[in-house]
């Protein structure tokens, strides 16, 4: 086949030359035929790609079609309830709300209400008028040791760094947050002028790389943190232990996104890939972590301090709670990130197969805080595929006080799910550091869209609550949401995720601990994140059998 294609290419060029003498306009096509011949010869004699060697020139069609496949599938083939990682239905509702377009749906649901996993909330015959509801529900964040509590919106912008996103995207998000009075999480990339000069409330995330408050050796810099944390726009401090898309791995900033400006802000070498360490160096045990929380609260003059984690080994979170009880130091909030969380760049295996999904993690964190009698002083924030009001309802019912959204806010900015966040070639200017692409995003216009998406989604949340007869988001609990677990059974959340009694994990007698938590509590120690080996007893018993 290779020889046939080569001979055909040569013949085409010869015919083109012959036609040129007979019909002069044919010379115009000589450049094309010569170019194709050059590619054919090059493909036929290279040794890296077997398909190109056996089928020169024609083999390139495969790569072209393969490259177009995601776009053909997204724009021409997928249905409203398909599409990964985000369904077209959810992308569409975000776009409509961001543009303040008509967001009602005709002719009934497109969901299969009899499919396993379908969920819904029960309404009430005591439904309320929407005008009776609070249009802007808010939650105070700040425990007993907090001197500057913060009144947060029920929906906010999740962690996305400058570096992962363009400067124009950060400006648009921040201006939208300022207009709607909700907070904007910086991500681990550090504080930038784009976060601080546009009036939005900021949650400053401190990751394992301590970007923006680090010494040259990568360790934590107290003085730099204290100076920046005092900024009036910085409302809360979040310690990032892990994130859902790549828990236990650390963030990744590709070299082509690491510009001179970003490197200066982060305190790293420009034009190099920056991998955040997988764990913190400022503390090594749960007890030391409590000391670090106490230190950050002092250095920030009493602002709320919390941490973010994707749930991994259950006993490790219990160890943190044991440290809280022993020291009396408690975070003001905990952000729970699901394994389905988004990211600009992560290894496939981490994205697909590491960490607890949000629902299971959220219920566990709420249960453990309740079991250790810590829940009343700590706010829980849910993060992971939050796009609609019902996503908020699901998380709030499982124990969250509020939610963060990253990809929802990116869609509001104009993201088209091109899946090019890790290439620096984002066509909408959202997730790129290419100045030409980033300039296509107008911060003023997109900030209004971020504001409108937030406003209409919160309005939809309160509309749902009014139908259930509840006036406050705090009234939602696990008895209100139902799931079809299979074709024979429908269960409430409280049946799928059984509630625990307050203080039940403080029992001194191990036999009095709830059975589902017993081994995890026995494994956990406030002196180490690494668990003891009680779960290994199961393996030993199995071997004995």
From TrEMBL:
SUPFAM superfamilies: FMN-linked oxidoreductases. Signal peptide: none annotated. The chain crosses the membrane at residues 5-22. Residues 149-470 form the Glutamate synthase domain. Coiled coil: none annotated. Keywords: Membrane, Transmembrane, Transmembrane helix. PANTHER family: ARCHAEAL-TYPE GLUTAMATE SYNTHASE [NADPH]. Belongs to the glutamate synthase family. This is FMN-binding glutamate synthase family protein.
């Amino acid at each position: 086949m290779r020889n046939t294609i080569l001979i055909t290419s040569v013949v085409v060029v010869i015919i083109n030359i012959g036609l040129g003498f007979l019909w002069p306009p044919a010379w115009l096509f000589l450049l094309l035929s010569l170019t194709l011949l050059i590619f054919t010869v090059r493909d036929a004699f290279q040794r890296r790609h077997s398909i190109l060697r056996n089928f020169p020139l024609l083999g390139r069609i495969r790569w072209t079609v393969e490259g177009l496949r995601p776009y053909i599938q997204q724009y021409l083939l997928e249905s409203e309830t398909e599409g990964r990682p985000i369904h077209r239905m959810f992308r569409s509702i975000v776009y409509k709300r961001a543009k303040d377009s008509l967001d009602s749906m005709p002719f009934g649901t497109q969901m299969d209400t009899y499919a396993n996993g379908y969920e819904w909330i029960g309404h009430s015959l005591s439904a309320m008028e929407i005008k009776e509801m609070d249009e802007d529900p808010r939650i105070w964040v700040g425990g007993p040791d907090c001197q500057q509590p913060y009144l947060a919106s029920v929906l906010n912008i999740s962690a996305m760094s400058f570096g992962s996103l363009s400067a124009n995207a950060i400006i648009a998000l921040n201006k939208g947050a300022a207009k709607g009075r909700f907070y904007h999480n910086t991500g681990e990339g550090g504080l930038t002028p784009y976060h601080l000069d546009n009036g939005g409330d900021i949650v400053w995330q401190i990751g394992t790389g301590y970007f923006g408050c680090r010494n040259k050796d990568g360790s934590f810099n107290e003085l730099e943190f204290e100076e920046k944390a005092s900024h009036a726009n910085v409302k809360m401090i979040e310690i990032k232990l892990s994130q859902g898309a790549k828990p236990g791995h650390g963030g990744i900033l590709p070299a082509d996104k690491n510009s001179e400006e970003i490197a200066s802000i982060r305190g790293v070498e420009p034009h190099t890939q920056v991998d955040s360490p997988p764990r913190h160096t400022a503390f090594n045990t749960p007890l030391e972590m409590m000391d670090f929380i106490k230190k950050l609260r002092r250095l920030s003059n009493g602002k709320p301090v919390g941490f973010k984690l994707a749930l991994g080994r259950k006993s490790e979170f219990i160890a943190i709670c044991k440290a809280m009880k022993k020291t009396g130091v408690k975070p003001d909030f905990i952000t729970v990130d699901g394994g389905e969380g988004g990211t600009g760049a992560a290894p496939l295996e981490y994205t697909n197969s590491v960490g607890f999904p949000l629902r299971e993690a959220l219920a566990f964190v709420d249960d453990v805080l309740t079991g250790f009698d810590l829940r009343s002083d700590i706010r829980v924030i849910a993060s992971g595929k939050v796009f609609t009001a019902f996503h908020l309802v699901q998380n709030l019912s499982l124990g969250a006080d509020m939610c963060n959204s990253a990809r929802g806010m990116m869609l509001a900015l104009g993201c088209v799910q091109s899946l090019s966040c890790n290439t620096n070639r984002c066509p909408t200017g959202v997730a790129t550091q290419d100045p030409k692409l980033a300039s296509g995003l107008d911060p003023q216009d997109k900030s209004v869209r971020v504001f409108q998406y937030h406003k209409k989604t919160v309005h939809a949340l309160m509309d749902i609550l009014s139908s259930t007869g509840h006036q406050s988001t705090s009234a939602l609990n696990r008895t209100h949401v139902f799931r079809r677990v299979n074709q024979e059974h429908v269960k409430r959340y409280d049946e799928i995720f059984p509630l625990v009694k307050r203080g039940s994990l403080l029992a001194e007698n191990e036999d009095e601990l709830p059975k589902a938590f017993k081994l995890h509590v026995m494994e956990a120690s406030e002196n180490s994140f690494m668990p003891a080996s009680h779960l290994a007893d199961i393996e030993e018993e199995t071997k004995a059998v």
